[in-house]
Amino acid sequence: MSELQKPIKQKNVGLKEFLIQLQELTNLRFSGSLHITIANHPSWTLWLRLGRLSWSDGGRNSQERWQRHLESFVSELQGPRLDKIASTANTNDRCSILVHFLNQGLLQRQQLTELTLSVTQEILFDLIQSSHMNRNCLSYEIIPDDSSNKHTLILPMIEVIPTLKQSLKTWQQWQNQGLVTYSPNLFPVIKQRELISQKNLSESQLSIISLIDHRENVRSLALKTGLDIVSVMLFLLPLAKLKAISFSKIPNHHKSGIYHLEVDHNQKTLIACVDDNPNVCRSLEKIISRQGLGFIAIQKPLKAIPSFLKNKPDLIFLDLVMPITNGYELCTQLRKTSSLKDVPVVILTGKDGLVDRMRAKMAGANDFLSKPVKVSEFIKVLNKHLKKSTQKEST
Which residues on neighbouring strands pair with residue 346, listed in sequence order? Predict the structure, then answer.
């Protein structure tokens, strides 16, 4: 195949032929774009520069994938700001946003490379699966020197073949487990919580269940639990056969099936977290808000007592190592304040030694939780201390 000078179109080819074409573009150090369509699926686009990939986009779950990766790689984006930026549907705008983040230092170049690699591996997996399900229905168009997305010239480049091999390996594992007809882009929805409660679940499985809500698909659950998509789906499928859960192709905006805490809480239940690390506060807020509980974050420990007196939290999570004052000192102050002395306090820390636990108990702490916090352990602690609070109020 000679150097490409003009667009090339191919219709209704098999996956193998397409992969050979992709290999040839790599060998030719091709620069331009590759547009792929399969049956009635939305198209995908791969941008290449000198035979390497600079960006990939498209497919049915383009919006969800974009938001998930922003949330994962750009920790400064939260709440309304994340939702606003994540609503960007135009590929050119998405690339310009990534370049802006790079220039502003919100993304390091290595992080952006990892983001691009993760996005591309997902897209290639989806493309492979769609091609398998719709044999010989793949069409593509090669556009040399495509300047429609100039921002791809600034983005880092990744190698095509190793990325493709990883996607093929994941697909093979998916296929070997009989998951061909299921997509990792499906959203699990809990239908019968009591059926799940009857199961003897492992810690990782409890983590999966606790994270299921209206906006988490299988890929998102895998990311947040540190598991692979095959393991997550293999756990969910038996629950689907029991009709404890179902799968949706789109996010389910009704939260009635979420796996909540065991306590009968009301809207007045409030959880507080004192930690100078904003990422820890945001992480706990996500878990707590999914349980329908209120949450306040305090990153300056000197403001903690005044905030507690005003807001009257039902449970306090307290970081051990903070500037100016530490968790032990703050806990001691709490126990000396009459209106706060009975509020359960859980110490959060990366330290997990016997001495630290003894000091925490002596300071008046009720419990001790190691960081990084595991979702299943965190929910157990919530259950334990909120139940005690409820029992005290009723006596």
Answer: 317, 367
User: Is the Cβ–Cβ distance between 59 and 42 less than 8 Å?
Assistant: yes
The answer to whether residues 79 and 66 touch, using CB atoms and an 8 Å cutoff, is no
**Does residue 387 register a pLDDT over 60?**
yes
Residue-range domain boundaries for the chain? 8-176, 187-248, 270-394
Distance CA 135, CA 112 (A): 34
**C-alpha radius of gyration, the chain, whole number:** 25
Compute the distance between CA of residue 121 and CA of residue 119 in angstroms, rounded to an integer: 6
User: Which comes out higher in pLDDT, residue 303 or 200?
Assistant: 303
How far is Cα of residue 345 from the mean position of the Cα atoms in its chain?
28
The dotted CATH code for 187-248 is 1.10.10
- pLDDT of 62 strictly over 80: yes
Residue 198 has pLDDT above 90, yes or no: no
Structure-token match 């990366």, residue found: 350
Classify domain 270-394 at the CATH topology level.
Rossmann fold (3.40.50)
Q: Is the pTM value of this prediction over 0.70?
A: no
By the 8 A CB rule, do 129 and 183 touch?
Answer: yes
**Residues whose CB is less than 8 angstroms from the CB of residue 342 and which lie 6 or more positions away in sequence, other chains included:** 392
221: which residues sit within 8 A by CB, 6+ positions away? Answer: 188, 208, 211, 212, 227, 232
Strands 270-274 and 315-319: parallel
The residues, any chain, with a CB within 8 Å of residue 243's CB and separated by 6 or more, are: 191, 192, 195
Alpha carbon separation from 275 to 309, 330, 341 (Å, rounded)? 18, 12, 20
Nearest to 58 by CA among 42, 37, 40, 34: 42
| Residue spans of beta strands (DSSP E) within the chain | 8-13, 32-38, 44-49, 52-58, 138-144, 187-190, 245-248, 270-274, 294-298, 315-319, 345-349, 367-370
Give whichever of 21-25, 248-252, 286-290 has the largest mean pLDDT: 21-25
For the stretch 162-178, pLDDT in tens is 999 999 999 999 999 99
Choose among 22, 277, 285, 36: nearest CA to 165: 22
Section 201-220 average pLDDT = 82
Q: Which of 53-57, 206-210, 299-303, 361-365 has the highest mean pLDDT?
A: 53-57
Tokens representing 264? 């009968």
Task: Name which of 248, 247, 252 is nearest 213 in CA terms.
Answer: 252
